[in-house]
Amino acid sequence: EVELVESGGGSVQRGGSLKLSCAVSESIDNGECMSWFRQAPGKKREGVAAIDGDGRITYADSVNGRFTISKDSDKNTLDLQMNNLNPEGSAMYYCAADSLGGSCDTLIPFFRYWGQGTQVTVSS
To answer: How confident is the model at residue 28, as a pLDDT?
Structure first.
């Protein structure tokens, strides 16, 4: 059983930045697909970014150029640097590991392991 614990959420104004981290109980370099998702109230969970075991990265169009996903092997965390945030980015953000839905770059929310989420609120 892999445990994922997110941190780093908070409240920022439009244009601000936040860095989310997901602490992983097993090695971050185990070759599994890992991803960040977000879900706003009343909306479906949507993929934000993913990184596969070979380091290939996929971003949702809505965040491409503003968000950066990365692995920190020293800290064993999956990180998400979010810049130039806008109110549409307000949501609960979840990290996920071990895709059950085929290719890592599909950003489909079908993963074996999920964290509890961290809230991001962006005000205008």
So the answer is: 85
